[in-house]
Design brief:
heterodimer, A: 73% helix, B: mainly alpha, two-stranded antiparallel ribbon
Chain lengths: 309, 358
């Protein structure tokens, strides 16, 4: 029983990390109907900014203390992400209003190429480290219940906790603030929202900034786990299936989808993987999502798609 | 005054239904073919063939395939790279394992492998559509990446997974020279593009377009969605598979599983969108744009930097290339969302009236 539980717990925590990236997709899709392929590039860009700023800030200002440097770097990276959000809204989205979904999708792909190139031009392209003081050692839990206890990675545990907090904060932001209410109104119906005086452009900037914030948190967590490098943007491709599994329009869907896929992926890798030659993590999530889609085409929590002629 | 249909009377159904009803179009196409088959081989250098013309031809072929699926049938697919890979490895296995297998049948069999794979991964299109489908087709990409890396049978049990073909010949003629490769790719492209053009203006092409415009309405008027969607997946992945096999056999010669990454799927989709959705001609424009742009940037950027007295490293050039590529694509989508084919048809419309304003 021990190993299975261990795998499940590991899966749940990876799943939480995937949901963190997926949240960015869902937020933007809900508010602007854009399927943002640049989310992966945004994660990479934010992580690069964070890593380099935390190096540069102590050098330039001569400040001591890692915590302070990290905090300042985080704020600076956030400001940068807001600037990116504003630029994207101003120069890409505003010009592409009323275009088909596929043109918008391709535009975000173009943005992702641009961000990849831009980020590596100004921040450099080697592998950087983000050190925010996350504990690295694994710990044992429930040693009395199971023989040998459950091996849990402390870093994963922290990351999952941060992700859960973030989701809670976002949910509260959407539910209880007036900006959040405006965002939900825009998500429901652009025209109706505009007609009662909600400024669409500003809402879009806010949504992209929030997505940038989520990307930054995801980038910091993934970056401190794997190191900041180009392959970070592939994490976004891995979290795509859980977006469609949970439903493109549902925030809880992104979380539940992430948990399902994280657990499924880990269990499959451990128990089916050896039969197939290993490495099936890469496509297992996609195939699982496909099977779900065959039964629920709109995803687990997505809004029901109604066809009218 | 030069380009218009006035005065060209059709006196039979055959004449009325031909591919290019306007005489000037026919003359133009014949002239283009003459240039491609005769003039270009006479003047082009080896570098031009290898670096630009052959990739352009092969990607045009793949773009025609993607355009059938995305542009004509409206099923957004991000699995094109996988279809290319399946075509390449399918053709490779037939070519190597069957003794005395000629090249052309191997290519066709590779295309058929891609067809089977494409239809299998096209099945979700019966339930999901739009962006959900786009993500679902990414499954094909990741599955193919894994399959060719991990299942050694496909790569003929080579330890590193990289495979090579040699001694290619068609009808007894060797394909070693760049010119021979160019002419072979050109012939394949012309034949398949002609077939594709005829398919999309026939009954099946109209079914695809009806499905694209609104699949529920199409089903109501008696078009079978399953047949139409799966046939689009089949035809499109056959063409993409043949293109993949050509890319591997003719252009690369030796390749490994990572040769057909998800980046290919994105680039093919770019070609189709920049060229123009739902236009065979547009596929050629798009392929030319996407193939030539990186090469041009690669050569121009260091010179531009020199002009301003800056030194650019190779990595710097690569990053600047990515930036400019991304920015140009966004710019293009903004100024001409309907693609280069739209400019082409606008130009033709203008020519009809020229030199009069109305």
């Amino acid at each position: 029983m021990g190993p299975v539980l261990e795998t499940i717990i590991g899966g749940l925590m990876t799943g939480m990390l995937y949901s963190l990236v997926a949240l960015g997709f869902v937020l933007i899709f809900k508010a602007s109907g854009v399927f943002n392929f640049a989310q992966g590039a945004m994660v990479l860009f934010a992580a690069l900014a964070m890593a380099r700023f935390s190096e540069w800030i102590p050098q330039v200002t001569g400040l001591q203390g890692k915590l302070l440097a990290n905090a300042l770097a985080f704020v600076a990276a956030m400001v940068l992400m807001i600037a990116v959000a504003w630029l994207i809204e101003r120069f890409v989205l505003a010009k592409l209003v009323n275009q088909e979904g596929i043109a918008l999708l391709m535009a975000t792909l173009g943005v992702s190429y641009f961000l990849d190139g831009f980020g590596q031009t100004i921040f450099g392209s080697s592998i950087y480290k983000i050190d925010v003081g996350m504990p690295k050692d694994p710990i044992f839990l429930l040693e009395s219940t199971f023989q040998g206890g459950l091996l849990v990675n402390q870093e994963d545990l922290m990351a999952a906790a941060i992700a859960a907090c973030l989701v809670g904060v976002l949910a509260a932001f959407f539910q209880y603030t007036s900006t959040g209410r405006a965002l939900r109104a825009v998500a429901d119906d652009h025209q109706a929202a505009q007609s009662i005086g909600i400024p669409l452009q500003r809402i879009w900037v806010i949504v992209w900034s929030v997505a940038g914030f989520v990307a930054l948190v995801a980038g910091v967590i993934w970056g401190s786990k794997l190191g900041v490098q180009f392959s970070l943007s592939v994490v976004a491709l891995k979290s795509l299936p859980l977006v469609i599994l949970g439903g493109l329009t549902s925030v809880p869907g992104a979380i539940v989808g992430g948990l399902i896929l994280g657990v499924g992926e880990k269990l499959a890798e451990v128990f089916i993987g050896p039969l197939l030659g290993g490495g099936i993590e890469i496509w297992f999530a996609y195939v699982l999502a496909l099977v779900f889609l065959l039964f629920r085409p709109q995803g687990l929590f997505g809004e029901k798609i109604i066809d009218r002629v | 005054m030069i380009y218009r249909e006035n005065g060209q009377f059709k006196i039979s159904y055959r004449a009325d239904q031909q591919i290019f009803p306007i005489l000037q179009d026919r003359v133009f196409i014949v002239a283009m073919l003459a240039v491609a088959f005769v003039v270009v081989p006479a003047f082009a250098s080896d570098y031009l063939f290898r670096a630009i013309l052959i990739p352009f031809l092969i990607f045009s072929l793949a773009a025609v395939g993607v355009n059938i699926l995305v542009g004509y049938c409206g099923q957004i697919s991000l699995g094109s790279g996988a279809f290319m890979a399946v075509g390449a490895y399918g053709a490779y296995n037939f070519f190597v394992r069957v003794p005395g297998m000629p090249l052309v049948p191997a290519l066709i069999l590779g295309g058929l492998c891609a067809t089977a794979f494409g239809v299998l991964f096209g099945l979700p299109s019966l339930r999901v559509r739009g962006l959900y489908l786009a993500v679902a087709t990414l499954a094909a990409q990741f599955f193919a990446d894994w399959m060719f890396l991990r299942i050694k049978w496909f790569t003929h049990d080579t330890p590193s997974g990289s495979v090579a073909v040699s001694n290619l010949q068609v009808l007894g003629l060797s394909l070693d020279s760049a010119l021979g490769k160019y002419l072979f790719c050109l012939t394949v492209l012309v034949v398949i593009a002609l077939l594709a053009k005829n398919l999309v203006r026939g009954a099946i092409g109209r079914e695809w377009m009806a499905i694209r415009d609104m699949d529920v309405a199409a089903a109501v008027i008696g078009i079978r969605p399953m047949y139409a969607k799966l046939s689009a997946f089949a035809v499109s992945s056959f063409i993409i598979g043949v293109a993949g096999a050509l890319w591997a056999f003719i252009y690369l010669g030796a390749w490994e599983p990572s040769a057909f990454s998800v980046d290919y799927s994105f680039r093919l989709l770019f070609m189709v969108i920049i060229g123009g959705l739902g236009s065979i001609m547009g596929s050629f424009f798009g392929a030319a744009f996407i193939v030539v742009l990186p090469i041009a940037l690669n050569r121009l950027l260091p010179q531009l930097a020199n002009l301003f007295g800056l030194e650019m490293s190779t990595a710097g050039v690569a990053h600047a290339e990515l930036m400019i590529f991304g920015a140009l694509i966004v710019w293009f989508l903004i100024v001409e969302p309907h693609g280069l084919a739209k400019l082409w048809s606008t130009a033709k419309q203008k020519l009809r009236l020229w030199p009069f304003p109305h």
